[in-house]
Amino acid sequence: MRHQKAGRKLGRTTSHKEAMLRNMVTSFFKHEKITTTDIKAKELRRVAEKMITLGKNESLHARRQAASVVRERGVVKKLFEEISPRYKDRAGGYTRIIKAGFRVGDNAPLAVIELIPLEVKKEEKPKAKGRKKASAKK
Fold it and tell me: Vertex 98, ends 80 and 117: CA angle to 5°?
């Protein structure tokens, strides 16, 4: 039984899976958008959202925790100075997964995982002046 065993195995040993996810999260924050298989994208989302939440903390301890997962020092800096401040008012859900068809070689389902863009407030448009409906006259 798999009670309280979170996460997918992905057909790899634990060390291989952790190394793969660390490499993927580093590439994800570097490029802010990557294409991978659907299942890997879902696992990557868990790690990436934890890193962004750490980045919102802005403490030395949080920076060291993120650096233990993210492989490049420059990407950790980008995470804390550019990416996390975008989402300071957002409680979660920083990533989006979009299905992208199937891979040519093995027909594996592909997905694009990307960071949610900043929400731009839309200006209210004035109501269109058109024909008014004719009221029923008796």
Answer: 40
Whether the Cβ atoms of residue 97 and residue 111 lie closer than 8 Å to each other:
yes
pLDDT one digit per residue (tens) for the chain, 138 residues? 989 988 999 999 999 999 999 999 999 999 999 999 999 999 999 999 999 999 999 899 999 999 999 999 999 999 999 999 999 999 999 999 999 999 999 999 999 999 999 775 556 666 666 666 666 665
CATH number of 14-115: 3.90.1030.10
Widest Cα–Cα separation across the chain: 81
* Dihedral pair phi/psi, residue 95, rounded to 5°: -120, 160
Q: Are 112 and 34 in contact (CB under 8 A)?
A: yes
CA–CA dist 135, 64 (Å, integer): 69
pTM score, two decimals?
0.82
Q: Where are the domains of the chain?
A: 14-115
Evaluate whether 110 touches 102 at the Cβ level (below 8 Å).
yes
Q: 38: buried, middle or exposed (CB in 10 Å: 19+, 13-18, 0-12)?
A: middle
